[in-house]
């Protein structure tokens, strides 16, 4: 019978949490999502008899989680820089590592030198929206090649009341008619298409176009670096997130494209996670 739990006829939260196939914290989050209640409510009501349709919805989500679907897609949201972003399988799930890029952009913009900022391949809009919320004086443009991603990013900006101008198109093609920028940031697809991680964990469910360039992982980074000079005001900067082993390659690209003050910054794990420079 659909909705019947192992053990037969189970109808309370407490009983479903005994299931050891997933972490208890994940089962609790799925219940919070199904019932639209905070964790404290679940704890206070964990022996209540639940409605059949709620149990059914919970079991469906639990089954999808057991098959590996990312929690963020099941819940429809992920927190980034303290804000709840809607996510769907059309966008990369925002990662905590990427907060580093946002924090660096905000630090540079805090100097007052940055007025117009561009986020390329914005996905859920996590980077552009977080920057806009922390520094509303900036003029922020964000692009994406995926119309579905752009619609979601727009929805996130609207719900969080962030002022961001979204443009559709491939990298710099999206910018026709735009003025130059003082800072460009991006978390582009940088995974080598042969990397076996693409067949593991959350990555199996995320959009391939957000993860890999279909080549060696450096092509999107290169396209952004090579086109940046045309779109930066004098003294403007470009900062990119990249893979743990790509920092030297990205620094070489930046230097080769005429950037000065080229450097990489490490994340909390000591990994060179972002690289950038200034175009004089
Ligand atoms: N940081 C992501 C990951 O490893 C990759 C995101 C990207 O390619 N931009 O899993």
From TrEMBL:
CDD domains: AdoMet_MTases (cd02440). It comes from the Bacteria. It is an enzyme of class 2 (transferase). S-adenosyl-L-methionine binds at residues 121-125, 144, 171, 187. The keyword Transferase applies. PROSITE patterns: N6_MTASE. GO terms for molecular function: nucleic acid binding; peptide chain release factor N(5)-glutamine methyltransferase activity. It catalyses: L-glutaminyl-[peptide chain release factor] + S-adenosyl-L-methionine = N(5)-methyl-L-glutaminyl-[peptide chain release factor] + S-adenosyl-L-homocysteine + H(+). Keywords: Methyltransferase, S-adenosyl-L-methionine, Transferase. Gene3D superfamilies: DNA helicase RuvA subunit, C-terminal domain, Vaccinia Virus protein VP39. One of its GO terms (biological process) is methylation. Belongs to the protein N5-glutamine methyltransferase family. PrmC subfamily. This is Release factor glutamine methyltransferase. The lineage of its organism: Bacteria, Pseudomonadati, Pseudomonadota, Betaproteobacteria, Burkholderiales.
